[in-house]
Amino acid sequence: MNPVATPAAQLGRSATRERVLEVIRGLLEELGSQGALPILSASSQLDRDLGLGSLERVELLARLETAFGMRLPDRVASEANTPDDLARVILSSPGTIAEEEEAGSALRASVTVQKLHRAATDEGVFVAETLIDVLRYRATHDADRDHLLITEDSDAGERSYTLTFGELYAAGNRCAAELARRGVAAGGRVALMLPTSRAFFVSYAGILLAGAIPVPIYPPPNCCGLACVRLRES
User: Fold this and answer.
1) In this model, does residue 20 exceed pLDDT 90?
2) Tally of CA atoms within 13 A in the half-sphere of 180 that contains its CB
3) 209 and 168 Cβ atoms separated by less than 8 Å
4) What is the CATH code of the structural domain delimited by 127-227?
5) How crowded is the C-beta side of 101, counted as CA atoms within 13 Å?
6) Which in 51, 141, 142, 202 has the greatest CB count within 10 A?
């Protein structure tokens, strides 16, 4: 049962901050993010420390509005970085927003659609029995969704990029075709000596898609990695 909404004006700064932390704590518990609870404080970074992305922030905003019986501007979801920031906005907010915003929020509508779509997709993926089933399902129903955030070292320095479900599946299939061309039979074992990189994930998926068994071997120190299969992705 949800507690009765209490206006921030009746609570004061300290009590408002504690109420905000209570709401965040409840959201983290529901998300299964118990690991973030010990570091939850008024100065915790919502994204870096607590792992609250854009969807979770909008959900948090809605819960805070319910807890304090007020409407907050949508920009708070992206601009507030800590629980203390949220408390300050709540204390300074008149509790209403412009009429045109009240009529409907494009941000909230978009996030709601994303949540419904992902919920439906996640529900369907539970019928998958293998990792390859999951990859195929995601590539079909969620191809543009980011799957991996990869950070690699290069001569130019560290670089980070994402790999979507669709990109991983497509590249994995090209690897599988190359394995077949080289005579790797279903059930065969393929060694992988690669650092954590795009090549590793693509090769691993490709070996599985070829029906073979990937056998990762940790690269020796100061080695950039040697792939047992050279990918042709052009």
Assistant:
1) yes
2) 12
3) no
4) 3.40.50.980
5) 11
6) 202
Matching CATH number, 8-109, of 1.10.1760, 1.10.1200, 3.30.700, 2.60.40: 1.10.1200
> What is the DSSP annotation of the chain?
-PPPP--GGGT-HHHHHHHHHHHHHHHHHHHT-GGGGGG--TT--TTTTT---HHHHHHHHHHHHHHHT----TTHHHH--SHHHHHHHHHH--S---HHHHH--HHHHHHHHHHHHHHHHHHHHTT--SHHHHHHHHHHH-TTSEEEEEEEEETTEEEEEEEEHHHHHHHHHHHHHHHHHTTPPTT-EEEEE--SSHHHHHHHHHHHHTT-EEEE-PPPTT---EESS-----
Distance CA 138, CA 145 (A): 9
201: phi then psi, degrees, rounded to nearest 5: -65, -40
Residue-range domain boundaries for the chain: 8-109, 127-227
Q: Please give the model's pTM, rounded to 2 decimal places.
A: 0.45
Q: Render pLDDT for 113-153 as a digit per residue (tens, 0 to 9).
A: 565 556 555 656 666 678 888 888 888 887 888 888 888 77
Among the listed residues 136, 209, 218, the one whose alpha carbon sits nearest the alpha carbon of residue 179? 209
